[in-house]
Amino acid sequence: MENREESRLTSAELANLWRLYITENLMYQFKTPLIDNCQDPDIRSAIEFSRAISEHYIVSIENIFRNENYPVPTAYSENDIHPQAPALFTDVFCLHFIHQGAQLGMSKIHEMMAVAVRQDVWEVLNQGANDFKDLYQQSLQLLLTKGLYSRPAFLPPEKESRFAENKHYVSGWLGNQRPLNALEIMSIHNTIIQNGISKAILRAFAQVINDKKLRDYLEKGAETASDIMRELEDWLIMENTNVTATLDSEILPTETPPYSDKLMMMLIANVGVGSLGVYGNALSTVFRRDLGLKFMHLMKDAVQYAQEGLHLVIDKGWMEVPPQFPDINTR
Length: 331
Prior knowledge:
The protein is 64% helix and 0% strand. By secondary structure, the protein is an all-alpha fold. The longest helix is centred in the C-terminal third of the chain and has 28 residues, at 289-316. This is DUF3231 family protein. It comes from Salicibibacter kimchii.
């Protein structure tokens, strides 16, 4: 049996639980108006399941924090949503958002499980991981059934396995370029999907947010996401492969905000973290130098945009910070 010292939360467990609590609390509040305004019963069921996953984490992590005498994060509340506001997104957008969230959730939770030591922490994460898998399948089947799923390109089968014949395989700036391989197509496709969702959220929030400075920031992000999608789609067009449809038409015309400015800005920050993960994965899988350089630039620009957003939310007093070591200079 572990003694008290050994059974305390490690810094890794504390960090992941804190981050997960903040994120799932945010998502719980964000999904509430989506459920209230959803017209399609199948899609509403998927959103409700997604919100139930968020609730599982909120309740479980609160219990762990209280038992360990850590303060429960303030996070968000029903005060950050406006129940009487009209719908901002169509059901189609909601389904895409839920599906993308399930994908990211599966990835992130397994990373957290890999550093979980305590059994209760591992069990909380594992239950959520299983739920995210079920949500992924539920949302995927809905997208397929409704003809909304955007498949990556298909590649014809080759006669035999191949090896790079020369260093031209990793070139990509000058002269003839080799065709994109499957890993590169996957990375481009995933990046377009992530930016399509990001752009729709940015444009929708810019449409209803109250603060002009924040609105300008969101509009800048939407234009950047649009530019990224166009450039990456050009690579697919050169390979004569299919291009992913945008979600621009899934934003509804309203100027009444369903959320507080704080919630909208912090959701954008959360989406930005997801984009950085997609860019990082892409950078680790592409071989052509032109693609590698492109994803490096995307990461740099995303970090700069995120920093600009952090400065805005810090100025507003909205940025809650994770637990840290005591400052010895204040003792």
